[in-house]
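Quick one: structure for this chain?
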Amino acid sequence: MSLAACGNAAQVGQPVGATGPHRGPLRIGLLLPENEIVRFESMDKPLIQERVEQLCPRCTVSYSSAQHDPAAQRNQIEAMITNGVDVLILDAVDTRAVRHSVIQARRANVPVVAYDRLAEGPISGYVSFDGARVGRLQGEALLEALGPNPENRQVVMMNGSSTDPNADWFEQGARSVLQGKVKIVKSYETVGWRPENANRNMSAAIAALGPHAIDGVLAANDGLASGVITALKTARIHPMPPVTGQDAELAGIQRIVKGEQYMSVYKPFKPEAYTAAEMAIALGHGTSLKGIAGQRVNSATARGIPAVLLTPVAVTVHNIKSTVIKDGLYRVDQICTKKYVDDCRRAGLIGRNGSSHDAG
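Got it. Here's what it folds into:
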């Protein structure tokens, strides 16, 4: 994926798939890849629906989750087109496999907003986070955790699914930081981004390298980090090597507080979800994305796609208050449940009497 000069884009003001002014309430189709990653059901879906309702109270949102199944997602897209949706917001399970369905949407004059992952085909707009920056934040945090002179430290990379172009984007960003500075002794693609597959991969790495030969793990998201950490615990590895993550899931933040996970990457979901809703409404009404999307990206099949690439933030135990708590993603009491009270006290999230400290 590359940023492209504006000159490569289709003429600004003529968004791909727009068919002119739309009369009546818009029908928006929302297609998410799964519901095992907590963020999709708890953050993305309700925030998109919220923004649509704010901007277009009479608009409707039809929702489908593909449950990791590319074929199911293709069927869902086709069903939504058949049922007369005006625009689609699509987070693809498999960005290549969905290409034909995106072409079908174009033929039916239904613009497609690629959400979080850049699907192939004639996409009309794209919103995500800068994936290279995500990987760099993870790599930089891992280097910091490894301390001075990390050249002889051995690192395992637990990357995401090969069907997700973001996984490659994250990995490239991480490698740009780690390459030549540590020894990357094992690197895995984790099928379906499933924690249980990360657990199996990590168990295999421990068996191959030995329990005391792993100095750090670059886990691409919090779900994979959970599988990695379970494998490390099962092998009774202590102290736990630093493990990275992404998505700032509640369980991930609690592992950070407990000292089991070193960091996560916080991607404020609200601006991403709100931008997707704004793009969908604009495209559905046949208007330009010029005032929304100030960047352009290229996919394997399309050039100059109007895009918004947002900035991620690294979260460690030291800045939980100034990031996820300050932004209202979680309350202190949600993080500091009974199981984590002592850990939260050590982290400075609550006082000796159990009261929460002010965010900041």
